[in-house]
Amino acid sequence: MIGFELIKIVFLPTLLLSFAMALASCDRDNAASPARAQSSAATPSDATVPKISFPPDSAPLPTVDGARAMQYLKEIVAFGPRPLGSPSHKKVEDYITAHLKSDTVENDIFTADTPEGKLPVHNIIAKFPGTKDGIIVIASHYDTNYPLRNTSFVGANDGGSSSALLLEFANQLHGKPREGYSIWLVWDDAEEAIKPDGSGGLPQEMPFEKDSLYGITHLAQKWEADGTLRKIKAFLLADMVGDADLNIERDTYSTPWLEDVVYEAATRLGYQSHFFGRTLAVDDDHIPFVKRGVASADFIDFNYGYHDVFWHTTQDTVDKLSPKSLEIVGATMLETIRILDKMDSLPPK
Ligand SMILES: [Zn+2]
């Protein structure tokens, strides 16, 4: 996940045990990880946001080929760890780009100034035009963390699952005119912190805000400067979405009304039991967009036993994941977009 997963754990009364466990793991994370946890006050969306009336929709619900997405996931993981500047990172860049060969692709390439020196960063953006004025961004990071500590972390769930899901989205969007907003798929890079971030690593020497989210921050700044940002109606982020035991968090940094749309989409699909059982505040790739006033929703299952207790470990492998989870998250993201397409106007950000 978030190479930079700054996590502020909030809690539900019914999850005291989980909360205690989360805090225990977070203490460990705080010792040597970019991930952070601290308590903060949750703000239930219902308390602050007027209820949205959702437009009726009798069209067939969207589907996603979870098995095909899982195959992409296996192929990504087969390249091995994919830290910045590595040969395997380049192979994954080429793998994603090859998948998009018939699409309109923008490459956002730059050099990041990191605690370990200058490193190459490559955001890949595939653009699928729609009939409606405005853009919906779906993003996923595809890098794994810099190998100062763990040289064999392959990030099957953390970076792999969501990147594979976006490849499957591209299959659905290829060459078809869209009735609705334009969709831009973003495989962003250098989300993970460069400094060691977990067990056995050195204490982090950089403020976390400055050592993570390199790629997506660059993109947000670029789009703010060239005016693109004003056209973005929603920023949907996927991160760690493949866990066979899928529980997508309600993230309090995400935009409350957009989270409500997500829950409506999940409910229409019958997947609501996988959503919002827990409320967290998660620092992830959506933060640069949240800060710039773009409505954002982070689809993340932070309760992944092979990640948040043993941060970025070799246990984050394909066998912990499920095609069904990719299908659940994928279809919910697509239905979220369909609801947004049909809304006359979107609430103020
Ligand atoms: Zn991570």
Explain what you see.
- The protein has 349 residues and is of the alpha/beta class.
- It has a single domain, classed as Aminopeptidase (3-Layer(aba) Sandwich), CATH 3.40.630.
- 34% of the residues lie in helices and 22% in strands.
- The strands form 2 sheets. Strands 2-3-5-4-6-9 form a 6-stranded mixed sheet, with helices on both faces.
- A hairpin with a 2-residue loop joins strand 2 and strand 3.
- It binds zinc ion.
- Zinc ion binds next to loops.
Q: How would you summarize this macromolecular structure in one to three sentences?
A:
The chain is an alpha/beta fold and 349 residues long. Helices cover 34% and strands 22% of the residues. It starts with 5 loop residues before the first strand and ends in a 7-residue tail after the last helix.
List the helices and strands and how they pair.
Blueprint: E1 6-9, H1 16-32, H2 45-48, H3 66-78, H4 87-99, E2 104-114, E3 117-128, E4 130-141, H5 156-173, E5 178-188, H6 214-226, E6 232-239, E7 248-251, H7 256-269, E8 275-283, H8 287-291, E9 296-300, H9 323-342
Parallel strand pairs: 4-5, 4-6, 6-9, 7-8
Antiparallel strand pairs: 1-8, 2-3, 3-5
Helix pairs in contact: 3-5, 3-9, 7-9
Bound molecules: zinc ion.
* Major sheet summary line: 6 strands, mixed
Determine and state the CATH class: Alpha Beta
CATH architecture: 3-Layer(aba) Sandwich
- What is the number of E strands? 9
Shape: globular
Low-pLDDT runs? 2-47, 198-205
In percent, how helical is the residue content?
25-40%
Kindly report the average pLDDT value.
83
| Beta-strand content estimate | 15-25%
Calculate Rg over CA atoms: 18 Å
As for the CATH topology, it is Aminopeptidase
Distance between the termini: 26 Å
Bound small molecules, deduplicated = zinc ion
Give the topology string: H per helix, E per strand. Answer: EHHHHEEEHEHEEHEHEH
**Count of separate DSSP helical elements:** 9
